Amino acid sequence: MSIELEIERRIAREVAAWQQRVVGKGRPLEVDEGWLHTPKGLRMPFRVLKNANIPPYEVELFHQRARLRERLDSATEPGERARLRQHLSDLDQSLACRLEGLLRLGSG
């Protein structure tokens, strides 16, 4: 048996195993509000991430922002509050740039 044939067989086995694990195979695509509000060019990539239980990085940034706001709300020392406000402002700016980039990418 040639090495090429063995490689092809292994690839075919792996593809068959992967196909058995595909979630929702044969069912219609569920369209929800999130799908409708996602730019068309990003719908399928985000669906793939969602099916793999991998949230987009921007979701983690939203979680970071929420935690940062909680810390800011509970901070009492003026220096700490100023530092947290600056960090929150930087995070908001970074998040806004990333979201704008995604919108451009998705509509292009």
What can you see in these coordinates?
The chain starts with a helix and ends with a helix. It contains 5 helices and no strands. It has 108 residues and is mostly helical. The protein has one domain (31-107). The chain has helices at residues 3-21, 33-37, 40-51, 57-74, 78-107. The longest helix has 30 residues, at 78-107.
Count of folded domains: 1
Mean model confidence by pLDDT: 86
Query: Which range best describes the helical content: under 10%, 10-25%, 25-40%, 40-55%, 55-70% or over 70%?
Result: over 70%
Number of strands: 0
Largest sheet: none
List keywords for this structure.
108 residues
Compact description:
The protein is an all-alpha fold. The protein has helices at residues 3-21, 33-37, 40-51, 57-74, 78-107.
Write the layout of secondary structure elements.
Elements: H1 3-21, H2 33-37, H3 40-51, H4 57-74, H5 78-107
Helix pairs in contact: 3-5, 4-5
